[in-house]
Design goal:
Helix content: 25-40%
Radius of gyration: 17 Å
Oligomer: single chain
Structural class: alpha/beta
Number of helices: 7
Number of strands: 11
Strand order of the largest sheet: 7-6-9-8-10-11
Order of helices and strands: HEHEEHEHEEEEHEHEHE
Shape: globular
Length: about 240
């Protein structure tokens, strides 16, 4: 993952919020509330695709991050359209087969790869950067700013951790729930967090590692600079 894509994901200055077309999803309501209450200081544009078009014509060009609420009628076409508008990264908000049918997943991966859009999700937590007022997730959980980065492959674990941390005033520098379609390797995220001045320690919950050698190289590098804790789950 390039530095530009890392920066677009964790430090976006221009965000487009792509609502689910035709109806108000619960994720729409939670995302809208989070953006309204968080005080995001960047440029935020809200668009809702109309029937027959993956994106409206007034969707801005050159955005750093697209926050896409699922389901979308044609998610691969939407990602291609974002790529044509030079969008650098996208986080998909939603969960379950209703949000993204299994048949669409391979097509969505291929579309993101061809369009040059780095993909995160689908997940409910998404990407949270409290110090920037970026709460790009469909979660009711509140988050304090702090210096611990949380990277997880499980929405349930992330939500439980955030619910436990808030009343104890434990804060987070970055939170990301990568999701099964993520084109963002854990090693790339570790490289970014290792040099992130807001992050003093890194906590990862992993269930699968696609590239163990790359992951271990990044983990060793990060561990030389700050504490790194890896919790392995999802296996018997």
């Amino acid at each position: 993952m390039t530095y530009r894509a890392n920066h677009a994901l964790f430090e976006p200055k221009k965000v487009v919020y792509v609502a689910a077309p035709g109806r108000l999803e619960l994720a729409d309501a939670l995302l809208a509330r989070n953006f309204a209450m968080s005080g995001f200081g960047g440029e935020l544009t809200v668009v809702r695709p109309a029937a027959g078009s993956p994106l409206p014509e007034d969707c801005p060009v050159g955005v750093d991050l697209a926050v896409v609420v699922l389901p979308q009628p044609d998610a691969p076409a939407l990602i291609r359209a974002l790529g044509e508008r030079r969008c650098k990264a996208a986080v998909l908000i939603g969960s379950g087969p209703h949000a993204l049918p299994p048949a669409d997943r391979d097509a969505l991966r291929a579309a993101a790869r061809a369009a040059g859009v780095r993909l995160i999700g689908p997940s409910r937590i998404g990407v949270l950067v409290p110090s920037l007022g970026l709460l790009a997730g469909a979660t009711e959980t509140r988050v304090h700013p702090g210096h611990l980065a949380l990277v997880t492959q499980s929405d349930t674990i992330a939500a439980s951790m955030l619910d436990w941390a808030y009343p104890r005033r434990m804060g987070f520098s970055r939170v990301v729930s990568v999701g099964e379609l993520s084109a963002v390797a854990l090693g790339d995220v570790l490289d970014y967090l290792a040099l992130d001045p807001l992050t003093r320690a890194i906590l990862l919950y992993v269930e699968r590692i696609a590239d163990p050698r790359r992951f271990m190289t990044a983990a060793r590098f990060a561990a030389r600079l700050k504490p790194v804790i890896v919790v392995r789950g999802g296996s018997s």
